[in-house]
């Protein structure tokens, strides 16, 4: 058993742990106390707000609260904006907040202010918690919240959290896991890189790590990978990749916990509901406040390096993945396409990725129809 006194309790580690606790609190629908220098504010995700909580927050507010929204959502409210912003809340009005954060036909009803450090920290914490990126921020005095026993998180620690997680990425376990199409396969589990989630490297066969290795970065897709959803081609890509690697000298598939292009499962399903009303995949995400792709792949590059891989042949249709690996210092010697089956349910999705995000997808498909809202 490790000596508890030997565990790191330096200031940076304690602040990093506080961010992890803040993520858990916000995800559970509980408020978090944020600090930026001498300034304090309570942050709470809009999803958790109700009349009782709003009254409680109003009672401790030092001055006007504010609703913090990302740029895509503000654009949906009718303002051209490339940066996130906040709406002043003279009163913490649950109905107004819900309208601004979620209603399809909502329009801005007040000026938008730039974000403070507290606002920026609150929005980043919401992204890390995989909740809706809409946060109520309530400035408070220390004495007003002394008895509330809130988890306190420093905004500086939030801004450095992702980079610190990447630096701490390490292998936690590994074992042979024979697969139907690839019986000689090993699963290598990493901890770190994306907060509280584990990541998996699926090593197919015995690839020569001193030579260019066939690699795919595959973001988890519960609906497609496990249930065979027809709305995407993820399941096909996953299984085709494993089969190809098994038949062509092996390779490494990184199975990354980045559901819904990094938005999380609940927000992905929200986006699916919007798609059923006529939005394409990117417009649906924008309605919810997300950019076209929330994912980062720096930790994926670190996983490959820890496996001894320096040169790769990437199986992808996404130019962003290729660029991310090159930026992280890996040599991409080749890239090849990996296509799944098309059907009436996913053809618009594939065409949208091709036309709006520049994915290398070649197939005959109708042009995406204009958005129609029921």
What does it look like?
38% of the residues lie in helices and 21% in strands. It is built from 16 helices and 13 strands. The chain has helices spanning 11-27, 51-60, 71-76, 94-102, 117-129, 142-145, 155-159, 161-167, 222-226, 234-247, 259-262, 265-275, 281-288, 298-306, 319-327, 347-357, and strands spanning 32-36, 39-45, 65-69, 85-89, 135-140, 152-154, 170-176, 185-194, 197-204, 213-219, 251-256, 311-315, 331-336. It has a seven-stranded mixed beta sheet, sandwiched between helices. The chain has a six-stranded mixed beta sheet with strand order 4-3-5-2-1-6, sandwiched between helices. It is globular, with a radius of gyration of 22 Å. The N and C termini lie far apart (61 Å). Residues 366-374 have low confidence and may be disordered.
């Amino acid at each position: 058993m490790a000596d508890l006194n030997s565990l790191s309790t330096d200031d940076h580690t304690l602040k990093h742990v506080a961010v992890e606790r803040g993520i858990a609190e916000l995800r559970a629908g509980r408020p978090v106390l944020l600090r930026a220098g001498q300034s304090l504010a309570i942050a709470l995700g809009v999803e958790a707000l109700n009349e009782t909580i709003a009254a409680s927050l109003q009672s401790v507010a030092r001055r006007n609260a504010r609703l913090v929204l990302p740029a895509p959502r503000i654009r949906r409210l009718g303002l051209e904006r490339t940066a996130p912003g906040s709406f002043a809340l003279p009163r913490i009005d649950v109905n107004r907040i819900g309208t601004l954060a979620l209603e399809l036909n909502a329009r801005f009803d007040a000026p938008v202010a730039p974000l403070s450090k507290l606002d920026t920290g609150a929005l980043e914490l919401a992204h890390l918690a995989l909740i809706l990126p809409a946060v109520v921020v309530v400035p408070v005095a220390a004495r007003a919240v002394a008895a509330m026993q809130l988890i306190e998180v420093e905004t500086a620690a939030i801004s450095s959290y992702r980079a610190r997680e990447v630096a701490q990425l390490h292998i936690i376990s590994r074992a042979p896991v024979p697969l139907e199409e690839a019986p000689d396969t090993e699963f290598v589990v990493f901890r770190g890189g994306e907060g509280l989630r584990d990541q998996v490297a699926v090593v197919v066969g015995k690839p020569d790590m001193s030579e260019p290795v066939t690699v795919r970065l595959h973001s988890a897709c519960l609906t497609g990978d496990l249930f065979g959803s027809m709305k995407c081609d993820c399941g096909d890509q996953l299984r085709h990749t494993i089969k190809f690697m098994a038949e062509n000298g092996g390779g490494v598939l990184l199975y990354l916990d980045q559901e819904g292009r990094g938005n999380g499962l609940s927000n992905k399903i929200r986006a699916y509901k919007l798609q059923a009303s006529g939005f394409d995949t990117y417009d649906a995400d924008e309605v919810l406040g997300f950019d076209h792709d929330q994912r980062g792949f720096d930790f994926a590059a670190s996983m490959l390096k820890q496996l001894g891989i320096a040169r790769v042949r990437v199986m992808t249709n996404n130019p962003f993945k290729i660029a991310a690996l090159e930026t992280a210092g890996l040599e991409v010697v080749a890239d090849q396409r990996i296509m799944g089956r098309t059907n009436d349910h996913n053809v618009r999705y594939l065409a949208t990725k091709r036309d709006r995000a520049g994915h290398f997808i070649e197939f005959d498909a109708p042009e995406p129809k204009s958005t129609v809202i029921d």
